[in-house]
Fold NAD(P)-dependent dehydrogenase (Short-subunit alcohol dehydrogenase family).
Amino acid sequence: MGSLDGRVALITGAGRGIGAALARYFAREGAKVVVNDLGTAPNGSGVDASVAEAVARSITDAGGEAVADTGSVADFGDARRMVATAVEAFGELHVVVNNAAVEAGLGLVDLDEDTFDRVVDVGLKGTYAVSHWAARYWRDSAPPAVDRAIVNTASGSGLLNPLPTQTNYAAAKAGVAAMTTVHALELGRMAVRVNCVSPSMVRTRLTEHVPGMPAPVADGFDPTGPEVTAPLTAYLASAGCPLTGQVLSVRGGTITLNRPWPHGPHVERHDRPWTVAELERELSTLDVGDPYADLAASLQGALGGKGAFASRSALQDMIEDVLARARAAHAG
Ligand SMILES: NC(=O)c1ccc[n+]([C@@H]2O[C@H](COP(=O)([O-])OP(=O)(O)OC[C@H]3O[C@@H](n4cnc5c(N)ncnc54)[C@H](O)[C@@H]3O)[C@@H](O)[C@H]2O)c1
C-alpha cells in the first residue's frame, strides 16, 4: 500500500532533475502521474518533447501509470490543457506539483527584459497558471472535491539567500512562497491544501557545477540526490495531510519550517508621527541584519565561496566576479 494510492498527480517540469525524481517516486507510491515537461535548456530556450515522454515511459515500463504532457506552464492555454489531460487520462486530479522553473542569471544592469520575463514567466506565472486551472476544475467538481493538494516549489534564493545575478529567479521564487499562503487561505473552503517545498543543494543540471556540490553517494541515502525532496512532497500531496500554507525547506535530511519575512525587532510610538531624527536614532538601536553577512553565510556551495571572507571588500570583489562571469556566460 503506497502513501499516494489512487491519487492523480500533475507534476510540472517532471522530465528532469527533481521533477523526474518526484514523478517516479509518486508512481512507486501508487499515484497516477501526468509528467509535464517542455524540455527546455536550463535558461528556458528550446523545446524537446522526448524529455517528458521518456520519464512517462520509464514509469509505465516499471508497471506504474503515467502520461506525458509537453506543454509550457507559462502558456495559459497549455496550463489549462494539462489539467484536462489528467482528467481525460485518469478521470480525476488530486494533486498539482508546481516544479518547473528556469534560471538565467544576470546582474541588474545587464538584465534585459526578455531574460527577466522568461524566468518569471515559468517560475511565477507558470505556478499561478497551473494552480488557477486546477482550482477552477476543483471548484466546478460535482460531487465537491475533497482532500486536494497543491505543492509549490520555492528556493533559498528569494527566501533566505541573497544571491547576486538572481533578480528574476529570486523574485519568482519569493513570489511563489507568497502565493502559497494566499492560495492556502483562498482554497481552504474548497478542501484544497497549498504548501511549498524549498529545495537546497540538490544535484541536478542546475547545480551540478556549483563548487562544493558533493559527488553522488553510490549506496544508501544520497543527501544531494534528486529524490531528496520526494518523501516530503509526497507527504504534502497525500490524503489526510493536515498541513496548509507552509513553506518547508529541504537540505539533505534536514527539513525546516520557513517563515518568510517574519516580524523582526521593532520600534513603536503611538502618540504622534515619528520624526526623521527619531527614526535615525531608534532604528540604529535595532539589529537590522546585514545582506553581506547573509550572503557570506549562504556561500557554502551556492556561489562558490571558499569559506570565511576576511572583509566586506573581499565579498564585494567576489560579487563583481560573479556578475562578470554571468555577463560572459550570457554573451557566450
Ligand atoms: N536543484 C536545486 O538545488 C534547487 C534548489 C532550489 C530550488 N530548486 C527548484 O526545484 C525545481 C526543479 O529544479 P531542478 O534543479 O530539477 O531543475 P531542472 O532544470 O533539472 O528541471 C526543470 C525542468 O523544468 C522544465 N521546464 C522548463 N520550462 C518549462 C515550462 N515552461 N513548462 C514546463 N516545463 C518546463 C525543464 O525542461 C526541466 O526539465 C525548480 O523549481 C527549481 O527552481 C532546485
